[in-house]
Amino acid sequence: MSISKVVIPAAGLGTRLLPATKSQPKEMLPVVDRPAIQYVVEEAKASGIDDILIITGRGKRTLEDHFDRSIELERHLEAKGDMAKLAAVRSISDGPATYFIRQKEPKGLGHAVLCAEKHMADQSFAVMLGDDIFVSEPPAIAQMIELYNNNPGIIIALQEVSDSQIPLYGIVSVCKKQGKALLIDDLVEKPSLKAAPSNLAIVGRYILTPEIFDALKSIEADKKGEFQLTDAIRYLMGSVPIYGYKFTGCRYDVGSKLTYLTTNIELALMRDDLRDDLRKFLTELIND
Fold this sequence. Notes:
By secondary structure, the chain is α/β, with parallel strands linked by helices. It has a single domain, classed as Spore Coat Polysaccharide Biosynthesis Protein SpsA, Chain A, CATH 3.90.550.10. 35% of the residues lie in helices and 25% in strands. It is built from eleven helices and 13 strands. It has helices at 36-46, 61-67, 71-80, 83-93, 109-114, 117-120, 140-150, 211-218, 229-235, 257-268, 275-287, and strands at 5-9, 30-31, 34-35, 51-56, 97-102, 125-128, 132-135, 154-160, 170-178, 181-189, 200-208, 242-246, 250-253. The strands form three sheets. The chain has a nine-stranded mixed beta sheet with strand order 5-4-1-6-11-8-12-10-9. It has a two-stranded antiparallel sheet with strand order 2-3. A two-stranded antiparallel sheet has the order 7-13. Helix 3 (71-80) runs antiparallel to helix 4 and helix 8 packs across helix 9. The protein is globular and about 60 Å long. The model has no long low-confidence stretch (mean pLDDT 91).
């Protein structure tokens, strides 16, 4: 059976983007003209996913409101004859069924995934982080689903990072290459440069098998009281094949102030309606 369900964890506190995220989920901060999480949902839709589960937390009701229909707004746009905006608004709630579960305590990514156990109904599923935007053709998660169909097991998206970034990520050790799949024999969460087994970092896309839930129940919390998905995957090493995949495309992290700003600029420069004027403004700004 191929992958038809996705979990999008969006319950984090977003402390790196305070004070903007005090009352606004970081996943709802606009990137050009749409919330960051909408890019993630659109990637899932384009990849054939027909069941989307978003894990939310306290104060994140705006996530549910965004993906619900707004009849009043639709009627207003229709009365004005603004059909382009009407189509854009309607497309947000069209397509796959979208569900929401609240993570009652911020206990880490692993715990957020564990909240999805009953919904997954003993199926393999995708996980897409709500503050990581991937731009690629075909979509990154579609690339990983195709890989899963030929290599059933856990699949982790990988990206080469610089030495200075290694302590910020989970890093993998690869023991064998099987076509596009890289067989992983170890994972280290945020190692020092000296202790890192490679420069291949775990980034925000996963395919997980049902065994992940028992693993998440078996691991211990870290020093911050959080349950890490990386630890649960490592727990399954030897019992479930674990593959890495260096996706084709670009990834944009909107989780910090600098990367949020640069992501807005880079994605705006990809837009035909914004590119020329923005490039002119940036050139004038730099030369001023």
